[in-house]
Design goal:
It is a single chain. This protein is an alpha+beta fold. The protein has four domains: about 25-45 and about 305-375, conserved putative lor/sdh protein from methanococcus maripaludis s2 fold (Beta Barrel); about 45-55 and about 220-305, Elongation Factor Tu (Ef-tu), domain 3, CATH 2.40.30; about 60-85 and about 180-200, RNA polymerase II/Efflux pump adaptor protein, barrel-sandwich hybrid domain (OB fold (Dihydrolipoamide Acetyltransferase, E2P)); about 90-175. Helices cover about 25% and strands about 40% of the residues. It has helices at about 1-20, 90-130, 140-175; strands at about 25-30, 30-35, 35-45, 50-60, 65-70, 75-80, 85, 180, 185-190, 200, 215-230, 240-245, 250-260, 265-270, 270-280, 295-310, 320-325, 330-335, 335-340, 345-350, 355-360, 375. The strands form five sheets. It has a six-stranded antiparallel β-barrel. A hairpin with a 2-residue loop joins strand 14 (about 265-270) and strand 15. The longest helix is centred in the N-terminal third of the chain and has 43 residues, at about 90-130.
Length: about 375
């Protein structure tokens, strides 16, 4: 009997030792505390946006011809009304000079013809008085009256000639202006197509003429970025935005949505976007921005301050988290009710309380509900974003 008892105790000891050495080891996990802070709901562009100028024009001559004057070069700052380029137009200048000469000649003729008309009218008036007193015949009076009318008609014709000559001057001025490019606003010359002495050829009707000078106003800039069509209905004018540029790493500029395009751009069949324009709140914060800088835009749709939140990376499918129970040192699956969310944080409306600790290292093997775990040093989510 005693031998049997010893054998049983030995077997129990071996079994206990086997269980001890083969028992599941607690999994080391990283926990994070549920805290309070700011949560924003936002959308970002799908492709790179760019810095654009509020005013930009690609100028080209209306007519073709040889470039006779090129008064600017790339990078020059110009003033409104400044002549940038002029085509050869000596023939038009000659026509203008001829028309101006005709105006002066017609004016001189007016002085002569109208003075004669005045004299003829005075003579007709004198003859009418003499006829009334019976000194001359009726035929003499009528002849003087008809002469006065004829001279006055010649005077009016001379005045019409002056008006016609002045109209020709205006026509030649318009023709000359067709050969001249002037700056429509203050700006900087971004590009020039053509050199002094080269010929420019106008395009056929309905075809855009290649620009000779690309002029931009770099005093007013905005950001244009393409947003996915599924997010377009969420974006409205006036919403705040954050802008980041590759040229300014680590810095964010603040702005507001100023325009949402009323149509979808289909760059590819799978890439349908809506262009959104964002104005800069403080353009000087970015220093000297250049038109064409690549940029990314994050538009804030909604923002909640001082709310309960968890890192978005801690959520499982179905809005579940793994809650650490310090009394059992095991994980419990907890379904939570969420509010607004972004790639970093998710608002918690129900299911957790401040100070609860949840698993942040979901990628580790064996991390699941019911698993025994050993907490590591945990980062806190209580810092405000």
């Amino acid at each position: 009997m005693r031998r049997t008892l010893i054998i049983l105790l030995l077997i129990a000891g071996i079994g206990a030792a086997f269980w001890w050495f083969t028992r599941p080891q607690p999994i080391s996990v990283t926990l994070t505390k549920v805290g309070r802070g700011k949560v924003e709901s936002s959308v970002a562009n799908t492709r790179a946006g760019s810095v654009e100028a509020c005013l930009r024009t690609r100028l080209s001559p209306i007519s073709g011809g040889r470039i006779a004057f090129l008064g600017v070069k790339k990078g020059d700052h110009v003033k409104k009304g400044q002549v940038l380029l002029r085509l050869w137009n000596d023939d038009q200048q000659a026509q203008s000079n001829l028309a101006q000469t005709q105006v002066e000649s017609s004016r001189m003729r007016i002085d002569e013809v109208c003075a004669t008309a005045d004299n003829a009218e005075r003579e007709a008036a004198r003859m009418a008085k003499l006829r009334a007193r019976g000194f001359i015949s009726e035929g003499g009076e009528e002849k003087a009256r008809y002469e006065a009318q004829s001279r006055r008609a010649a005077c009016e014709a001379a005045r019409a000639d002056v008006t016609q000559a002045q109209a020709r001057v205006k026509v030649t001025k318009v023709e000359q202006d067709r050969a001249v490019l002037t700056a429509p606003f203050n700006g900087i010359v971004a590009d020039i197509v053509g050199e002094l002495g080269e010929y420019t050829t106008p395009s056929p009707p309905g075809v855009a003429t290649p620009p000779a000078i690309d002029l931009i106003d770099d005093s007013c800039l905005y950001i244009e970025a393409p947003m996915d069509e599924v997010d377009a209905h969420k974006i409205h004018v006036g919403q705040p935005a954050r802008i980041s540029l590759d040229a300014l790493p680590g810095r964010h500029l603040l702005g507001h949505v100023k325009r949402v395009a009323p149509y979808v751009v289909a760059v590819e069949k799978q890439a349908r976007t809506v262009d959104v324009e964002v104005s800069l709140d403080n353009p000087g914060d970015g220093g000297q921005l250049l038109v064409g800088y690549s940029s990314d835009v994050e538009i804030v749709l909604d923002s909640h301050d001082d709310v309960l939140r968890v890192p978005t990376s801690t959520l499982l499918e179905g809005n579940k988290v793994l809650l650490y129970r310090p009394d059992t040192k095991k994980l419990e699956e907890r379904v939570i009710k969420t509010g607004i969310t972004n790639w970093e944080y998710t608002e918690v409306l129900d299911g957790l309380k401040q100070g609860d600790r949840i698993v942040a290292s979901l990628e580790r093997e064996g991390v699941k509900a019911g698993a025994a775990v050993t907490p590591e040093t945990s980062p806190s989510s209580s810092k405000a974003k």
